[in-house]
Specification:
Layout: H1 2-10, H2 14-23, E1 24-26, H3 55-64, E2 70-75, H4 78-83, E3 107-108, H5 113-118, H6 121-135, E4 139-144, H7 146-151, H8 155-166, E5 169-173, H9 183-197, E6 211-217, H10 223-234, E7 237-243, H11 248-253, E8 259-262, H12 265-279, E9 283-285, H13 291-305, H14 308-336, E10 340-344, H15 349-359, E11 363-368, H16 374-378, H17 390-393, H18 413-421, E12 441-443, H19 448-458, E13 462-465, H20 467-475, E14 480-482, H21 494-509, H22 513-516, H23 520-523
The structure holds FE-MO-S cluster and 3-hydroxy-3-carboxy-adipic acid.
3-hydroxy-3-carboxy-adipic acid binds next to helix 3 and helix 20.
Amino acid sequence: PAAVKQELIAKYPTKVARKRGKQIIVNRVGEDCSVPEIGANTRTIPGIITQRGCSYAGCKGVVLGPTRDLVNLTHGPIGCGFYSWLTRRNQTRPATPEEANFMPYCFSTDLQDEDIVFGGEKKLRAAILEAYDIFHPKAISIFATCPVGLIGDDIHTVAKEMKERLGINVFAFSCEGYKGVSQSAGHHIANNGIFKHVVGLDDTSREGKYRINLLGEYNIGGDAFEIERVLEKCGITLVATFSGNSTYEQFASSHMADLNTVMCHRSINYVAEMMERKFGIPWIKTNFIGAGSAAKSLRKIAKYFEDRELSDRVEEIIAEEMVEVEKVQAEVRARCEGKLAMLFVGGSRAHHYQDLFAEIGMRTISAGYEFAHRDDYEGRRVLPDIKVDADSRSIEELEVHPDPDRYRPRKTAEQIAELKRDGLSFNDYEGMMVRMADGTLVIDDISQYETERMIETYKPAIFCAGIKEKYAVQKKGIPMKQLHSYDSGGPYAGFKGAVNFYREIDRMVNSRIWSYLKAPWQTNPELAATYACE
Ligand code: CFM
Ligand code: HCA
């Protein structure tokens, strides 16, 4: 692997090679579970083809996009709104046909040259009014795109004005695409906004003995539906999901839950932290990707509530669900055992999906995130060592204090200590690298060039990433699975999701279809462009 790393960076200019060298790491897990340091959450070097997205994508597309009864209004040119409109395959299911669902609509101010020159606030006001008149939503959220920041439209003042005028909640996000180094900045901006403007507005809550929030689950391909099914079977009440299959009211009353479970830590940890500080709700890391991980997560939730009835119920459900899971696992494993996978996805899936592959005997030979931070790789314990650079500093850190009336620690310090002794960890996650084998390559913000070299070197049985990589990978003869949108598949979460995934991967890695395909330049060499000087 060290030689492969050298080869990956050999063609770069010295300075670029030095920087990429810090982001390409040969994994090695120490006896104390320590892992090497990796460079992450830094600017992509201009000229490198990255797969990263922008701050607007992280804020509007990722965190707020899945909420069905919010009018999510993009203030900007039409492309930003259009390309963040359901391409992520975030699904939703209104409880009744009458319930508001704006998911089939794309709201945008459609800024034109003229608005860029003379300012877009007038158009923004008009768009809010128009949306209000047609849909009468409970709330309207406004998202800034790059030009809005450049021309200086004051979206927050417009929001405030319209909130007073219409008597509904209107709030804005300064999530201009260029803020920060990737969509990760947009997550933080979204977390701050939703916490400031919505969380805690409604003190009524769903009844239930075990009330939790699910943070960082976005219902891609129906994942949240499957998790909801399992939780309901266990008798666990879901107060709010941030933000798959969610509603505005769920956010408003989310502070009434007794536990925050965090799936995708990268995109939503800020809300978990702020809710703990303001309302006293503890958080634990959970993961419903992989049948084993789903079972483990349910057990963690049961442990937290310290209730025999719940833990018995959870064990019963796990046993029931695992029958089909184990049957399919055994069948598929026979055909997939030992095959290699590579995963380069966002900020948590490159980690979570390794569990699913392991369940059918497949090995992850290399993995990396597009925009995660060091803690997502190395574990939360490195947080104090992370240098906060200028790019991160430009994102606001909210100052949060205990709510004078509503701060209510759900557990006493002694109870927490006891639970910790019993193996439940709070406010923690171990990161991706400690779970990966020694000698695997961990690559942050992988470039297109590196992707191609990795495929040529290892010839994995499957390569998992997103739409930008998809066709280049297939042209190399390798099956490619999108782990963002799931292509047209899913759900892959929970128990039924695991079974879906095993079957799909089995089909993919055991079909030779892509290896038969020849790119045009392979059959017609005259199409292979080469430089005269080479
Ligand atoms: Fe979290 Fe996500 Fe991901 Fe993410 Fe994303 Fe996504 Fe992703 Mo695409 S919130 S970090 S910003 S799990 S949209 S649902 S698939 S890159 S790995
Ligand atoms: C985003 C959304 C995205 C893109 C996926 C892809 C998603 O980053 O803005 O590149 O295929 O999951 O839809 O991550």
